[in-house]
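Supplementary notes for students who missed Thursday's class. We covered one full example, reproduced here. Read the sequence, then the structure, then the short commentary at the end.
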Amino acid sequence: MGKGGMSLGEMKDGEEVNMAAWLMSLNTLKIQPFNLPPLGPYDVRVRMKAVGICGSDVHYLKTMRCADFVVKEPMVIGHECAGIIEEVGSEVKTLVPGDRVALEPGISCWRCNLCKEGRYNLCPEMKFFATPPVHGSLANQVVHPADLCFKLPENVSLEEGAMCEPLSVGVHACRRANIGPETNVLIMGAGPIGLVTLLAARAFGAPRIVIVDVDNYRLSVAKDLGADDIVKVSINLQDVAEEVAQIHKAMGRVDVSFDCAGFNKTMSTALSATHAGGKVCLVGMGHLEMTVPLTPAAAREVDVIGIFRYKNTWPLCLEFIRSGKIDVKPLITHRFGFSQKEVEEAFETSARGGTAIKVMFNL
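Structure (token representation):
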């Protein structure tokens, strides 16, 4: 099961019992003991301090699955995290107890061809926090490889460190789409991933960014975060042509579109709105299968690219935050402690949506 952790600070025989939030069954979370694995020579033991709730966490809670990953037995939830080093393995030279770190949650094999080519995010043997059957990080402590723990600059908080995980999705998407100072960007969806993609695209130099959503509140947040314009759309497929015209009026030429929702409607809009020779990057995974106008897009040589998680993004995310090029703090809208009641309330808050963007646990 890879690495992991266990506890609420309870004591047993004079030793702290590591507690974690376990997904027990449909809509059921329970804080209970989580035994730490032995500390390997290249591992560190980290006391969790900030853990965010991702949409995939909520999906597991509500359906016990996310895409092809199915929860078949109780699993510790959570993967957006940062904490403080408590203990280091005998061969760890770069970290010491007391260091504040952000954790990259995926452990790849480093032996397969994809890993050797540098595309370790596609490793078929990936062990990723809170992806069945691997346990997650919403726990008092976890054990994790030291090379996946990144020291936080002095002016970067633990909450900001935890936000490197969702921000990494936006950074990886911008790298895949070659965003730069000559790239006008359209973003479909103003949820948490759409908003971090907005922040990343601006940091990469995109001169004009328009964001599209069905929700007025999320569009207002996008505007506050620096979107040049916003477009309110419907959920009806028959409105695509009219809405593409609105997008072109707001944007002009669309060089790259990011679909951060992943539905028939959003992908159809992105493909139709993108200029000839441009790119559409599918980030969200709302629908496993879609019916979209691919042939007209192909006739305009619009490239369609996908992303899966991220690779080698934490150093750049931390530099963007340290330097002030990206401010993730406004995305954290709700905070909770680590009690049974608060864990349940936090997940319900995240699931309801509304004004909740990023829900964060402070342990």
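Commentary. The first helix runs from residue 55 to 63. The first strand starts at residue 4 and ends at 5. If anything here is unclear, bring it to office hours.
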